[in-house]
Design goal:
Layout: E1 16-19, E2 22-28, E3 36-40, E4 45-50, H1 56-65, H2 67-75, E5 88-91, E6 94-100, E7 106-108, E8 116-120, H3 128-156, E9 163-167, E10 174-177, E11 186-190, H4 198-210, H5 219-229, H6 233-247
Parallel strand pairs: 2-4, 6-8, 9-11
Antiparallel strand pairs: 1-2, 3-4, 5-6, 7-8, 10-11
Helix pairs in contact: 3-4, 4-5
This protein binds zinc ion.
Zinc ion binds near residues 207, 211 and 217.
Length: about 250
Amino acid sequence: MSLFRSRSPRPADGDRLQIAGVTVRLSVNPRARRVSLRVDRARFEVVAVAPSPRKLAEAVAFAHQREAWMAQQMADIPEQILLAPGQTLTLFGRPAVLGVTPGRPRRLVDPTGGPDRIVAPAKDDDGEAWRAAILRLLKREALAGLSRRTQTYAAALKQPMPKVGVADTRSRWGSCRPARRGHQAAIRYSWRVMLAPPAIADYLCAHECAHLVRADHSPKFWEVVATLNGDPTPHRAWLRQHGANLHGIG
Ligand SMILES: [Zn+2]
């Protein structure tokens, strides 16, 4: 038995460590050139990246060197906002108040022009079932609103309507798989874009639809986006600046 055997097991891909109060996830990425740190704002953790499993210990050491930086990055992340009855969300620009109902989950439109109500039954004490039902409803509404926009832009490009889905992806707002022989094109959006101003949802749909005809982000691609929806610059800036806040809601 060696006296010098390390007490902690060797770090492995996917491990999570606590370093100075910050959760650090270890990740092996063979395409990385060196060890590095990045912030996963959605998961509220720092990712320590190493090019190989052998270099993970080096990545951990690097995280220890950058403790102050990591703490500051975490402090800058907006708080998580848990959905709760009484909250008002703005869905594609229309305010809607969350509420509890004994009936089925649904959206109630106020005939007097007040904000809509998004309601679901409260089946348990901690509100988990209520939140899950509200989230399902929000995703369904997101799918409807994003499908409508997609249809408009796909038609403007004389492309067949792609398959549209919504997901809870936090790393990207949308993705497009162009049509291949025998396969319909498919676009997936992050449902949370419905919480942004409607112009942002318009831009995102124009962006993904432009991929139906250009699979890259070349100047030609951006020309197509601009033809569909005008100058994308302010919308891209909005997403960079405020996008992370939307990920805190759920
Ligand atoms: Zn793109």
